[in-house]
Specification:
This protein is α+β, with helices and mostly antiparallel strands. The chain folds into two domains: about 1-65, 434 Repressor (Amino-terminal Domain) (Orthogonal Bundle); about 65-165. It has seven helices and six strands. Helix 2 (about 15-25) crosses helix 3, helix 2 crosses helix 4 (about 45-55) and helix 6 packs antiparallel against helix 7 (about 150-165).
Length: about 160
């Protein structure tokens, strides 16, 4: 699994994807895919331009992890499966409930596999937890078909607080 931290670098430097794409003569789709970690392949010319523009080596924002994270949803239970390159795997559950009053989904990690979550995510960069949560949010948003901004905020705050990353 290759992860990009370009999103954080641009935020720290107060740069937008549009500005970077324009000034590096790169496609906005390329930059946006790097920011959102949805790239399938990398254009070497664009990557070279980006490295020169940011005055960084590509290893400063692209990281390799020896596993993939797969996420499925069934009956409001997310299964997060970490498949390691050596064929080992770790499976964690995450329960999502929907409050009827204000329609804000609540993630209940403490009643699921909290120790698995804690041990796995403490061993890795914050970006992995962020990507996992973003994937969960995307799956849930598509299934429920509504805006999850409160869910995104509440989930990140509670998980980052609980896991102490």
């Amino acid at each position: 699994m290759i992860i990009s931290t370009l999103k954080n670098i641009l935020y720290e430097r107060d740069l937008t994807a549009y500005r970077v794409a324009t000034e590096t003569n790169s496609s906005r789709t390329f930059i946006q895919n790097l920011i959102s970690n949805k790239f399938q392949q990398l254009n070497v010319e664009y990557l070279n331009n980006l490295c020169k523009y940011l005055n960084l080596n590509f290893t400063d924002f692209l990281y390799y992890y020896p596993f993939n994270i797969d996420i499925t949803l069934d009956n409001n239970i997310f299964k997060v499966i970490v498949n390691y390159d050596n064929d080992e795997f770790l499976e964690m559950s995450l329960y999502v409930t929907l409050l009827s009053e204000n329609k804000i989904p609540v993630v209940n990690i403490k009643d699921s596999d909290f120790e698995n979550w804690r041990s796995f995510y403490e061993d890795h960069e914050n970006i992995l937890l962020e990507l996992t949560l973003e994937s969960i949010e995307e799956i849930y948003r598509k299934k429920q078909n509504y805006n999850l901004e409160p869910f995104i905020f509440l989930t990140r705050v509670s998980l980052l607080t609980d896991v102490n990353l």
